[in-house]
Structures are given as C-alpha cells and as structure tokens.
Amino acid sequence: MCGIVGHVGRTEVLRKLLAGLKRLEYRGYDSAGAALFRNGVLEVKRVVGDVATLATSLAGFEDLGQTIGIVHTRWATHGDVNEANAHPHRSCVNSPHCKEVVVLVHNGTIDNFQEQRAELLERGHVLLSDTDTELIAHLIAEAYDGDPLRAVRTGLDRVVGTYGLAVLFQNDPARIYFARNGSPLVLGLSEVGNFVASDPLAFREYTDKMVTIDDGCVGWVSLDRYHVVNMQDVPVACTVETIPWSLESAERGEHDHYMAKEIAEQPAMLRNGFRGRLLPNGEVKLGGLEASGDILAATLSHSFVGAGTSLNAGMIGKVLFQEVADVHADWENASELANQKQPRFRDRTAFWALSQSGETMDLLGALETIQRYGVPCFGIVNKVGSLIARKTGRGVYIHAGLEIAVASTKAFTNQVLALTLIALYLRQLHGLPRDAWVDRLVADIHRLPELAAQLVDREPDVRAIAERYAGYPNFLYLGRGINYPTALEGALKLKEIAYVNAIGYSAGEMKHGPIALIDGGFPTMVIAPKQDDYYAQVLTNVQQIRARHGRVVAVATDGDEGIRQCVNDVIWVPPVDYFLTPILAVIPQQQFAYHVAKIRGLNPDRPRNLAKSVTVR
Ligand code: M6R
C-alpha cells in the first residue's frame, strides 16, 4: 500500500506534492513524510499522522523555491507507526559505507529483509528504523560510483521483494530516480513539470498524460524529460497514455464522504456497466472476450479468484455461471491460491480474476500460480490498464469509475453485473435456448439503474434503522444461495468501517453453531428477497432466531407483508429478477454500515489499519 509522489517543477512544487499526496491518502494514512532541498541540502521531514499534519510541519519550506521533492503516506508493514519508521528513509551520513546521501520513499515489502539487515549491520551501516525500506537507501548509497542510475540498479540487485520507489540523490538535485517491481508506479508528464506517483490521481489536476512503468524497470524524470531502462540498462520504449477519467470524477462533491458518493453513484455506474453490451436483439456482446471464444467454448470448469469484496462477488459468480450458463464453477481465495504448494486444477479450467484496483498483491500471487500452470485467466477489473488487467490481457472491465473510499461499494455491484453479463454470454456461446426467464433477466438488467436509484432515495429509512442498531457490538448476517455472499459482503462492510463484530454466515449453517450466539443483545441481518429460491428456508431460520429472543432486521422485497410480521425491522428493496437480487440487496447494507460508522463517531473513509489497495502479501 502506501502512496508515493515525486515532482520536478518550476513553481509551487511543495503545494503540488502535498495536494497529490492528499489524494493518495486512500493508500495509507498512519504517517507521512517529505524529502526536499533546503539551500542545496537534502532534508527529510516525517510525522505520525496524515498529510494535513505533514503540511503543518513543513510550514517553513514553502518559500524556499523548491524545484524537486518526494513525499509519502504510509501504511505500516515493517515496524510500528512512529516517526523513525515513517518515510522517506536515508542512507548513512558521513560514513565510509555510503558514498552518497540517498533518500527514498517506498511502496512494497522486501522479502530478504532480515538477511540484508544483518549484512548491512555487519558491514558497519547505522540503521535508524525497523523498516525494510531503509535498507534499500543504504544498498543504493553503497553501490554509488558517481552514476545514480547504475547505483539504483546495482543496489536493487540484492533486493528480493516488491517495490515502487522514488529516490533523490544529494548530488543530483534535478532528477528523481525511480524503480518498480510489483508495486504500481506511473509518470505524469505536464507543462508544469513531471511527476512520479503510485497512482495518476496524484497529478491528474495538472495533466492527463501518463506513462505506466513496467515491472523490472528503473529510470529518472527531470523537469522536461524522462528515461527508462531495464535492470540490464537496456532502454525501454514507453507509451504515453491518456488518463481516461476527469479530475471531477475524483472529487467528493456535495457528499460528506467518498463512500457516500460512491454508494449514490451506483445507478449511473450500473448503466455504464451494461451500456453497449446488451444488443437490441437481446444478445450480449463483450469485446474483451471475443478473441477468446475458442478457449471459452472448450472450457469445462470456471473458477473465480479474488480478495475481500471481490471474492464475495466471485462467490456470486459461481451461482450465476452454474445457473445461467449451466457450467461448472467454483471460487478460490486469492491469498490461499497464491500460497498453494501443489495446486491441482481441473481439466480445461479457466480462471476469472476479480479486482477493483487491479493491483492486489494476493491476487497477483494467485495469477502467477495460475499462469505458471498454463491455465487461462480472464480479468474482471475496474481500473483500466492496471497490473492485473495487463497481466490477464483479456477479460471484462466493469466500468464502475474511480473508486476511492476504502470500503468497496460500486465496484461490487458492477462486478456482479459483469458476472451476470458473462454468464449470459457463455449461455449464448454454448448455444443454450433463449428461454423466457432469460428475456426477463435481460429486461431487469435494463431496469437496474432505475431500481438502484430508488434505493439511493430510500437512504433515510436505512439511516433510521441504523440509529436503532448502532449500539450493538455484534451482528450476524445471514443469506442463502446467491445471497449467502451478499450476507458476507454486508458483514464485511459493517466490520471494516464500523468495527462491529459482524459475522457473515450461510443461513443454513446457522443451526450448526452460530445460533449459540443469539440472544437479545446479538441482532441478525437476514437477506430475504421474496424471489429467492430459498425464501421459505430463510424464514424458518428467522423463526429460530426469534424463538431465542434475537432481534432481526430483514432485507425484504417491497410488499412482503409476511416477513414484516416476523421480524423487528425491514429494509425494503424493489422486486427484481432472482439473479439480480444481490445487486439491490447490497445497496442498503452499504448504507447501513455507512450510517452505523457515522453514528459511532467514525470516519467511513478512514477505517483504521486499512488501505484501499492491498499491495502487500
Ligand atoms: O482492489 P481489489 O478488489 O482487488 O481489493 C480486494 C480487497 O482488498 C477489497 O475488496 C477490500 O476487501 C475492501 N476494503 C472491501 O471493502
């Protein structure tokens, strides 16, 4: 995780660095720091806290006319959250071991950290932090022979792990050096100077021109040039791309939080998700799969892989593929698959890698395993051009727009929509009949934006229910079939932003253990749309809870008077095709978690210990 920004410019360099870093706070916000030149001397400033705290601590720097600097916002991996462990880190000063003062910021983790640390200490280096990052500064400074780029390459030769790095050298105050392996890094090219950052969001205000740095590349940016080579010093040709989104879409607008904005954007994003993909004759067209028709036609088994919310969507994908496309489907947790020593894949399997960010390290690990075994893998990704989108090279973009809040919302609904479209596409590909229920499903996809908009309008009703339940420290979430993962997703939202011990369970499993938890102080949220195949069974589970004095909130279909009689509170959702119920049922759960967090005095956009993109293992 962590956010990196570096800028070489003419004016207001510090202001631009801090504004860019502020936009990257979704990547981490436990501590922050900057490296800037003061009278030709490289200085480092670090604070525990967020970018605003860093800005205050840099008060004296604004007027010094900086033309270059690097800044960082941290999500701790190695070492506590304290000033010494905050970035930037520097090499030894006035020591025979470090031949240059090197200061750097890092996103990633170093796997051979213990070994390198022991060796550096043995060689007499003085290490001032508990981080893995500091070692890189020492290794580069030790390798320095007057050529900074060679020093970066040689220093990194000893490093095993992932990194996105921005590096300053005391004796080269006109260039920022950089390197990438496994952690995102892009260059921004503008009239006002050039940037290096973990995400183009950092510089979108100044330019829409960017260059994505590939793994295994190092280089530098100056005011008006950049240079990229591989680890063998062979120049790498780069493509200048146009950033496909506007700065406006990255603003919070009238909303108090990004999470609220993104929940409210779902009607529009759902429309983007199927626009141009449902043809007037009812067929589904997915450009990213067209070249893979043969592979898909020959595939006997599909598997979804992802983490967190994306995994929950993948679990829904299993039901959609089995029931809509009539193919075998399963799912895998990305971190588990990445670590499997002896993975065994079914014959003629295809994987589908789900990710909002397209840079989740666990998923990249799983992808490496899948591709090592020669198994085809398709991406279902939000961020266009992201690492996972590029590594899979084929698949479907979900078109949910920029998602900035740590808690994923609109990405989930658009992932489920994309999975529904892919399931319909496979049904078509396999020549299965176009039954009446397929027409009804397609018709309801067209209605999704309007139905989701109704839910956005009903938010005050959900807020009123959240007020009644915000004091409970525990919550059970139950659902069956296609809505079992919906329950998991509702529980994940409440857990991550409201710090409520919310447990998602399959409703049928409840009687095998979790029911022991139930009493008057342990409420349950039950996902019970009337169209659900398991509706009657879910109602039985509700009765079992009520018999034990458990309070129940039901997410139920408009007009379902029966359920109103047997639960304490109801969150109403409009009727929709069974296969689309997760999309509608999840929206009020996102709103519920959002309001519980707010009522508990928490900032839903800044959950503790979390960051938006999990780029560490
Ligand atoms: O970017 P990805 O979809 O790959 O991220 C996966 C998870 O880290 C992510 O969904 C996480 O669980 C969210 N905080 C959930 O709201």
Question: Would you summarize the structure shown here?
Answer:
With 617 residues, this protein is an alpha/beta fold. It has 20 helices and 24 strands. Helices cover 36% and strands 21% of the residues.
Provide structural commentary.
- The chain has 617 residues and is an alpha/beta fold.
- 36% of the residues lie in helices and 21% in strands.
- It contains 20 helices and 24 strands.
- The strands form four sheets. Strands 3-2-4-1-10-9-11-14 form an eight-stranded antiparallel beta sheet.
- The model has no long low-confidence stretch (mean pLDDT 94).
The largest sheet is: 8 strands, antiparallel
Large-scale geometry: globular
User: Any ligands, ions or cofactors bound here, and which?
Assistant: 5-amino-5-deoxy-1-O-phosphono-D-mannitol
- Strands of the widest sheet, in order across it, are 3-2-4-1-10-9-11-14
Helical amount among residues, as a percent range? 25-40%
Low-confidence stretches: none
Global Rg: 26 Å
How far is it from the N-terminal to the C-terminal residue, by CA? 10 Å
Structural class: alpha/beta
Mean model confidence by pLDDT: 94
> Roughly what fraction of the amino acids lie in strands?
15-25%
Number of beta strands: 24
What is the tally of helical segments? 20
- Regarding quaternary structure, what we see is single chain
